[in-house]
Write a structure and sequence with these properties.
The complex is a heterodimer of chains A (282) and B (310). With 282 residues, chain A is mostly helical. Chain A contains twelve helices and no strands. Chain B has 310 residues and is mainly α. In chain B, helix 5 packs across helix 9. Classes of the chains: A mainly alpha (282), B mainly alpha (310).
Chain lengths: 282, 310
């Protein structure tokens, strides 16, 4: 990333602009920081007038991760989320890679139309489908199971994955593939030896975005799996209580729930956006 | 003899055609699993929904489902609650997109230069986008906006003003504020990608010719950014038009914050149990979204360069 200081700009101007960037960054990050801090406070401290300095405690983390029989526990929600997100992401990638290949490297006829169909499914409001989905799931006996969310998360992430992967695959030089073909490489060898090394970062970025959307999904999870197979977002909402103080506990739970995805997003930030933005513009 | 000679090329042609057809199918094959899965999972529920909308079907009190044609649609637009849900959906989507694109543009311009800790600032800025929507709604509701515990009200009373019950007093704008907080980073990153793909030689030439920074921004940067701004607005609206999580944890769809998705939810599995009527509402949403999407996809069609078919 190259961003030269604008030539002819005065030094004081550039210092002011840099300071403003820092200020805006800190303002946007503040709610997250506040949540993080509150998770290390006692309920008393968290519910007092806002304080930056306090004696940190792990009390809330212990409280939210302790299991109460009959209630949705942290371990159970975490396990459900990991299995649902992991399995659905894996299958999404397995289906999306060949599809993106057929839309970019050796494009079929009408590949644009097919791509548009994929994107157009993202426009359909999920809420309009929830009723039939609920009825189908109930009849199949998969309501409150991991399976139902795995299938649905695949359904809403597959178009996104195809879209992103296609843009990464477009960057593979066709000449390189043709050369390997002339050298007698089979399709599998072409995929493994020629393409994989080039598109590996794109694959990782796509998988991460799919993970983020699946991990954060709440609507389908709470409608279909409120009793069993509940995921982490549902677990977080269980800490909102109408009696007693819950701010610190809610903050600790929120931190635990968001941490995996925030860290993954920090690592993949540049590529993720390139996949989304460049895919459409280039 | 002559017949044979004439025949041979045709049989060859047929063979050639068969091979071509086989080749086409081999090319299509990798696409089929994903395509069929997407069609089954995304299209079947909507077709079923269309059928439900033509029936009278209530769970409480349980009455047998009967076909009623377009009865459910007849009452649709006279329902003031539905009309208000339509208005709130439009307002929320337009306001959230407009603010997040504008603020995102401002921040992207600030970040498009070298300064100490630029990577770190970008990392801080993208964090809201990664936060689980449920958590974002809860944190803002209980720790920022709250009239007793919220830090915003602590600041307000610090300067001697009365604390404001933000979520209760202005539910629409409270939800919009959280949406803007979450989507500004996304817009910022897409616009930043656009800024960094600007042709530096043209900017350089304009600078040498003595163009002012403002006119350079207006005549060089902005036209180049247009596809990025449009893309960001389009992708954002796909998600924001469907917002449910924030509303669910912040206001539970209280007055002034029920958008269409939340309204449909309330009328069906969220307690109303009038499946036929709810299906009609959501069918209208689908039709409205299709109209919007057709425009949006045409926009994307303009962004995608024409592909040559091999």
């Amino acid at each position: 990333m190259r961003a030269p200081r604008k030539i002819g700009e005065r030094r004081s101007t550039s210092i002011i602009l840099a300071a403003s960037a820092w200020l805006v960054g800190l303002i946007f990050f503040f709610p997250v920081l506040w949540m993080l801090l509150n998770g290390f406070k006692t309920e008393l401290d968290a519910n007092a007038s806002p304080k930056l300095f306090f004696t940190p405690t792990l009390e809330q983390y212990r409280a939210v991760t302790s299991e109460t029989p009959g209630l949705l526990g942290f371990g159970e929600a975490m396990m459900n989320s990991i299995v649902i997100v992991g399995v659905s992401t894996l299958i999404v990638m397995i289906l999306a890679v060949p599809a993106a290949y057929a839309l970019s490297i050796r494009p079929i006829k009408k590949s644009r139309d097919v791509l548009f169909f994929f994107i157009s499914t993202k426009f359909l409001p999920i809420v309009a489908g929830i009723l039939p989905i609920w009825i189908i799931a109930k009849n199949l006996g998969i309501l409150n199971s991991r399976l139902v969310l795995i299938i649905l998360y695949m359904g809403f992430n597959l178009p996104l994955a195809v879209w992103m992967l296609r843009s990464f695959f477009k960057e593979v030089p066709v000449a390189l593939i043709e050369a390997s073909q002339i050298d007698g490489a089979t399709l599998r060898q072409q995929l493994q030896r020629v393409m994989l090394p080039i598109v590996a970062p794109g694959l990782a970025a796509t998988a991460l975005l799919v993970v983020i959307f699946a991990w954060n999904e709440f609507f389908l999870a709470v409608q279909l799996n409120a009793v069993d197979g509940s995921t982490v977002p549902i677990w977080v909402t269980t800490f909102v209580s109408t009696r007693g103080n819950f701010l610190a506990k809610l903050s600790a739970a929120s931190t635990l729930a968001t941490l995996p995805v925030v860290i993954a997003g920090w690592i993949a930030q540049k590529r993720m956006i390139r996949g989304l933005a460049m895919g459409a513009v280039k | 003899m002559e017949q044979k000679v004439a025949k041979r090329p045709t049989s060859q042609e047929a063979q050639h055609k068969a091979r071509l057809r086989r080749d086409r199918w081999i090319r299509r094959l990798p696409l089929l699993p994903a395509l069929i899965f997407t069609i089954v999972v995304t299209q079947i529920p909507f077709l079923m929904n269309l059928w439900f909308s033509l029936t009278d079907w209530k769970i409480t009190p349980p009455v047998p489902r009967t076909f009623t044609g377009f009865d459910n649609y007849a009452t649709l637009f006279t329902n003031t609650f539905f009309r208000s849900a339509v208005w709130i959906t439009v307002l929320m989507t337009v306001a959230a997109i407009a603010f997040s694109v504008l603020i995102g543009l401002g921040i992207a311009l600030l970040l498009d230069r070298e300064f100490l800790g630029r990577g770190l600032v970008r990392t801080l800025l993208i964090t809201p986008f990664l936060i689980m929507p449920v958590v974002a709604g809860l944190v803002w509701n209980t720790q920022i906006f709250h009239s007793l515990y919220g830090i915003l009200n602590w600041v307000i009373s610090g300067i001697g003003l009365e604390p404001i019950e933000f979520v209760g007093r202005m539910p629409t704008w409270s939800v919009v504020a959280v949406l803007v907080w979450q989507w500004t980073p996304f817009m910022m990153l897409i616009i930043l990608a656009g800024l960094q793909s600007q042709p530096t030689d043209i900017l350089e030439a304009a600078r040498v010719d003595g163009a002012s920074p403002i006119s350079m921004f207006r005549f060089i940067t902005m036209p180049g950014l247009r596809p990025y701004l449009e893309l960001g607005a389009l992708l954002g609206s796909i998600y924001i038009i469907q917002v449910f999580d924030h509303i669910h944890v912040m206001t539970r769809g209280g007055p002034g914050s029920t958008n269409i998705p939340y309204f449909v939810y309330q009328r069906s599995i969220g307690g109303g149990w009038d499946f036929g009527q709810a299906a009609a509402y959501s069918t209208v949403v689908v039709i409205a979204t299709i109209i919007l999407a057709t425009y949006g996809l045409r926009l994307l069609g303009g962004l995608l360069p024409k592909e040559e078919h091999a």
